[in-house]
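We were asked to recover a plausible sequence for a given structure. The inputs and outputs are reproduced exactly as logged, with field labels preserved.

PROBLEM: sequence recovery
POSITIONS: 758
GIVEN STRUCTURE:
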């Protein structure tokens, strides 16, 4: 039987990537591709094939296909090279369709499919053709709905959805490209992967949830005591079981076709459910919290991934750009987020302590959250963060468990270097990985001393991440003289020293932040400190405590500089940590003439804290004292902006470490400052900046586009520069501001800056 409609939708202007599309099985999946291609004018004609003539008529009447037949063999002789046959029938019916195609499919026609299991499609092809033919491109659109049938077909079903193609070694390249183009033209994102990998991934992420949803609804529906259950079932039930309304035939087929991979997933899930059952039975609140907090973190991460995907899909952009409008001043009373260094350390030490550690003021930025997630991955129950509050159920010095996979710490050098020290002392192997920027940063500075302690640490080429750390090594104490002033290296060695036999000492060439030493003492671990030397004896234990993380002076610096360069500014920064190993920015800005006063000085949890008041004052260029460099190491990008607004020359030396931060901060700032019209000359260990400011409100910077290179502090520094710019400053690649100061734009606007995020 054959049914015809109103002709085809070919337009002369259209680039024809494929000729005809034959859709075998005009249901939701096949019909939606047909409608999508029609909307995109992506082919010359669409022919539907359905077993029942009513479906053929319906498909034509709905405009899903141009014509339809019940017997595919009748149209095979018409097909030409470049045409595509899309087999969109239930998984187990694919073989019968292949058998019909076998005798009569003209050369040059591509066959693809939409079955949810690829192993069974490949087996079906082998059974029919003897081998998988090169014109078969197995595929699987990861899209659908619990509705089925041709009436459910939609032209937008595949927009922003993934299509997985699983080409074989012999798959024809041109055919593969044609299918890829076909899916892209209906708005899908096409990925390729091996057949076995596809089936395992789908078993876990799609097939298992369907088994569970069907099983749960069936259990409840058959439970006599629960006969009223659906009447009272609310959102949770609805969200969780939506997929149990899917097509039973399709899902029965999938279960049978992907048997082995699904059984593996079911077994894993069953044992997890058993363990949850016994935790509930025995009132094991900690185990329940462990599973729930880990699962929540994973789900939140997934939600964010989905949101980012939606964002990039609609905005067609993966980047965050700051557009900083010129002029303005900063005023008011602000509290910037918690100290990043202390936030990392609070999670690390809290996890290894005996007892429950409560943290407040925790920085909910991506870097500190990466540390938090790493410890969750190693089995630590961590509640929060909620409004900066985190509760850590410490597992003791030897209570960490092997993580299920590599620990991914994103952009965070502190996480990677400090964790390396702790992991060297564990009984299990571990791998630390990071993002593109972190993957370029030097790790031999920690790997070398750890090796001296007897650890087995492997790096990638040139000492770059990932770090592979072997567990179960007996560590021996060392007396380590740091070749560079680095708190991360010092902390790494001291943390490994907790697991070493004997007394581990570090000697630093200049004072660096001492939060590790102070916090260890706060957790009751004795640290001997004598000038530049810090020592501890391994084998002790940590006792849980309460930690109040003050606001981060590194984040506060952006507002200190903002107020110092913008006439009319007067800002109060609350509860900022002013540890003498971190106060270089205050000293340097004051030396330049900044009006900074420290009010309400106090000590909180072993760390000095104050409210910092900054009023506008004209600045002058200075030679920055080298002893201040490690004390202001993260603040230089902002200080360079202050230098550009000062009267006269500012010279920085002894700061080669700036070249190996999240970016080469000397080069990145020099490049950006030059684009904005400042004479900034990089040197191997610093920079020389000719200030254009002084006692006037006149613009110092021109407008322009600068690249932050994904470095949070470069991004925020140029945003501050706009206060003294003559035109917009557009700052590229600002997404990483979220690593240390997630609400920067909001606070900046509240203070009076005109900053747009796009
Ligand atoms: C940090 C130490 C510093 C600093 C980083 C945080 C820490 O790094 O730049 O942002 O928390 O120990 P180095 O140790 O590389 O100087």
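RECOVERED SEQUENCE:
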């Amino acid at each position: 039987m054959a049914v015809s409609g109103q002709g085809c939708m070919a337009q002369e202007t259209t680039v024809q990537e494929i000729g005809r599309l034959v859709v075998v099985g005009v249901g939701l999946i096949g019909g939606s591709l047909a409608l999508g291609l029609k909307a995109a004018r992506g082919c010359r004609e669409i022919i539907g094939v359905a077993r029942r003539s009513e479906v053929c008529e319906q498909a034509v009447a709905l405009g899903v296909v141009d014509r339809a037949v019940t017997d595919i063999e009748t149209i095979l002789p018409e097909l030409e090279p470049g045409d595509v046959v899309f087999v969109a029938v239930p998984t187990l019916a694919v073989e019968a369709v292949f058998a019909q195609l076998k005798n009569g499919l003209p050369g040059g026609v591509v066959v693809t499919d939409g079955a949810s299991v690829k192993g069974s499609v490949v087996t079906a092809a082998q059974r029919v053709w003897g081998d998988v033919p090169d014109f078969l491109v197995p595929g699987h659109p990861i899209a659908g709905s619990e509705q089925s049938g041709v009436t459910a077909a939609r032209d937008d079903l595949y927009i922003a959805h993934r299509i997985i193609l699983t080409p074989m070694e012999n798959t024809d390249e041109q055919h593969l490209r044609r299918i890829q183009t076909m899916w892209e033209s209906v708005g899908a994102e096409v990925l390729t992967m091996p057949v076995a990998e596809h089936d395992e991934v789908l078993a876990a992420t799609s097939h298992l949830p369907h088994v569970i949803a069907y099983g749960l609804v069936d259990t409840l529906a058959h439970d006599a005591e629960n006969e009223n259950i659906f009447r009272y079932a609310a959102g949770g039930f609805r969200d969780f079981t939506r997929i149990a309304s899917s097509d039973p035939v399709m899902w029965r087929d999938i279960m049978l076709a992907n048997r082995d991979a699904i059984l593996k997933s079911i077994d894993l899930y069953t044992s997890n459910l058993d363990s949850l059952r016994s935790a509930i039975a025995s009132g094991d609140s900690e185990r329940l919290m462990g599973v729930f907090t880990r699962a929540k973190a994973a789900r939140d991460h997934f939600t964010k991934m989905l949101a980012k995907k939606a964002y990039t899909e609609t905005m067609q952009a993966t980047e965050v750009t700051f557009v900083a409008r010129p002029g303005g001043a900063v005023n008011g009373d602000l509290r910037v987020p918690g100290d990043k260094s202390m936030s990392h350390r609070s999670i690390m030490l809290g996890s290894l302590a005996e007892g429950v550690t409560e943290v407040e003021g925790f920085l909910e930025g991506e870097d500190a959250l990466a540390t938090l997630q790493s410890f969750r991955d190693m089995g630590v129950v961590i509640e929060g963060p909620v409004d900066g509050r985190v509760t850590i159920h410490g597992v003791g010095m030897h209570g960490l468990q092997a993580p299920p996979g590599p620990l991914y710490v994103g952009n965070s050098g502190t996480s990677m270097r400090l964790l390396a020290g702790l992991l060297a002392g564990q009984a299990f192997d571990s791998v630390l990985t990071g993002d593109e920027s972190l993957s370029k940063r030097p790790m031999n500075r920690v790997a070398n001393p750890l090796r001296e302690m007897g650890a087995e640490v492997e790096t990638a080429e040139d000492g770059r991440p990932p770090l592979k750390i072997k567990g179960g090594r007996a560590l021996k104490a060392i007396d380590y003289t740091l070749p560079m002033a680095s708190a991360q290296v010092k902390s790494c060695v001291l943390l490994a020293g907790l697991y070493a036999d004997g007394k581990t000492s570090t000697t630093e060439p200049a004072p660096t932040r001492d939060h590790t030493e102070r916090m260890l003492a706060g957790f009751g671990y004795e640290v001997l400190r004598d000038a530049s030397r810090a020592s501890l004896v391994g084998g002790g234990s940590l006792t849980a405590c309460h930690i109040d993380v003050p606001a981060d002076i590194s984040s506060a610096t952006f507002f200190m500089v903002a107020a110092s360069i913008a006439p009319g500014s007067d800002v109060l920064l609350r509860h900022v940590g002013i540890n003498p190993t971190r106060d270089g920015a205050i000293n340097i800005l004051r030396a330049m003439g900044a009006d900074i006063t420290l009010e309400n000085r106090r000590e909180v949890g072993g760390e000095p804290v104050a409210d910092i008041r900054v009023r506008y004052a004209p600045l002058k260029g200075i030679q920055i004292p080298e002893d201040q460099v490690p004390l202001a190491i993260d603040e230089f990008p902002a200080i360079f902006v202050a230098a550009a607004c000062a009267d006269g020359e500012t010279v920085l030396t002894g700061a080669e470490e700036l070249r190996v931060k999240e970016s080469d901060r000397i080069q990145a700032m020099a490049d950006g400052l030059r684009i904005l019209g400042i004479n900034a000359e990089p040197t191997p260990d610093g920079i020389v900046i000719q200030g254009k400011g002084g006692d006037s409100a006149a613009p110092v910077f021109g407008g322009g586009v600068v690249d932050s290179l994904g470095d949070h502090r470069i991004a925020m520094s140029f945003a501050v520069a706009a206060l003294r710019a003559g035109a917009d400053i557009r700052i590229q690649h600002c997404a990483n501001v979220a690593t240390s100061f997630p609400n920067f734009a909001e606070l900046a606007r509240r203070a009076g800056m005109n900053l747009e995020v796009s």
